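hi!! sorry for the late reply, been swamped w classes. u asked for the two structures so here they r. pasted raw, havent cleaned anything up. first the sequence of the first protein and right below it the tokens
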Amino acid sequence: MTRECLAIHPGALGDVLLAAPALAHLRALGFRTTLAVAGRLVPLFEASGLVARAEDLEALRLDRLFQVPAPADALAPLAPFAAVVSWLGAHDAGYRANLARLGRPVVIARAAPPGPARRHASAHLLDTLAPLGPLPPVLPEARLHVDPAARRAAAAWLGRQGIAPGAAIVLQPGAGSAAKVWPGFAALARRLAAAGAPVVALAGPADDAALAPVLAAGAIPAARVARDWPLGHVAALLSLARGCVGNDSGPTHLAAAVGCPTVAVFGPTDPAVWAPVGARVRAVASAAPAWAGVDVPRVAAALAAVLAPPPSAPADRAAVAGAGAGPP
């Protein structure tokens, strides 16, 4: 029998995508899951196939459950659910006590693993579900679906740039903080363009500073920058790409989630904990100080590796010929 479950995750895009294996496990346990997330993420996850539906976290008014005593009707939005998984409020005794009043299975846990353990966030989130049923021996596969209309729109945009589906290399030079921005994207763009690869870039509202050197390098014209696209359209573009290189950022996790061969470059953050999850993902990490050793040849070699066909498939790597060797 299908049971209704509410999963609450307060994080940004990349953090929520790392919960995808845990969400897949909830489905395997027989739950029909509603995912409560930040409002801007709702349309993406509503169409994702990872959950039955998505809901704006703010609509649940969970702030009232941090009050002691909580208002009498504070638990009402949670009443329809047979189980609640909250990756929010683990350190607040009042919140935990109020949720316990539901009288049904409740999991309250940190969204991030404890620092010293260096356990991957996806494995940590899966571990938190142990009270609801046996855990699988490996992370469940969880690929994000793409809205067909968004996919058609992304394909039309690529067509206007003269790029066929499955050909583009997408660069994500921005990140949520300046410290996460790898300084090598302009040189990588030049290298790929010189090798004949059609290169496009993603940019959000706060990415102008990270994008400027890439545009100044002349390898990507402004018309080939997907600026301020809705997340569903970003997911569609990534699903049509040959590969993606990005920082430790939401769009890079999104690339991995839709099955795009992905290289994630890490400076101050730890890929052992935060690397995107996917079958064709490589993380390129630095030693201290941040970005030490993360040079263009190393990143290009990682890209060539994730783009390499399986041994039984015909070799067709003309678009990235020379990407993994030689000077930038």
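now the second protein. again sequence first, tokens right under
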Amino acid sequence: MGAIEASGLERAFAGGIRAVDGVDIDVAEGEIYAFLGPNGAGKTTTVRMLTTLLRPTGGTARVLGHDVVAEDAKVRATIGVALQEAALDPLMTGRELIRLQATLHGMARAEGRRAGDALLERVGLEAAADRRVGTYSGGMRRRLDLASALVHGPRVLFLDEPTTGLDPVSRRGIWDEVAALNREGNTVFLTTQYLEEADQLANRVGIIAHGRIVAEDTPAALKAGVGNPRLELAIAGEEIERARSVAAGFGPLHGAGDGRLVVELAGGATGVAAVVRALDDAGFAVESLDLHQPSLDDVFVAVTGERISEEDTGEHEPVAAA
């Protein structure tokens, strides 16, 4: 049994809008699964269905074996959810908010206090626990939201854009905490706009476009599928075409100009020295060089035809008819 399973999952809205169009997902227990897609691709709609916040209009989905429609209460009891827009009351303190969350999950008062205080310490908010949430920074709010999602000890955690808008230090702190939770055995379903985040954290990545999954594999396998590393060189002198003919003996050439050439190297870094020696022997001085490894951004462009931007912070879900 997988931690998260979806088969032919669909969601249609009024006006014939099909936001999710036959998605199949199989996330193993203990896995970090990153879900990527351009704005409006169906990421948030899929997460809302998997977390019982939105009813599918087709297909099935299960979390830890529980159907998200027929057994929605059991699903909610086993998952933690931290959505992109955290609903945190700015007038409550961090400690009050996390204790309220424990109460809503039916935890005994003493148990909720112990769990809440332990989590506030874990996410580095112990010193600010009795301050009003309205005084918290963005990073502190995200850490409080994460702690709130964990208070009842869920086995599966859904994180929707957990680091959007955070500074690099705060973002790294959330990454470290997600990795630690995974090492403790938690399954994490992560939607993100940061390709580096998916590359660093995820065991597998799924890319969704126009409501369908268009690529899915480990980050390494996805990157390997879009080509070899590319060596970019700046060449002294004006005979760039002759330099290109020398470099062409080592792999396919790619577009470049202004005294620069780009050659694809099947061997990656192991082939750099040979290219430089050949150019030197031909009378060319290499002024600079950079070896570019394929990235998830390259994968994303290859399978969707567009790039993710850091302003691409989520999708606006169509409004269903009443």
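hope this helps!! also noticed smth abt the second:
Residues 102 and 108 are 8 Å apart (CA to CA).
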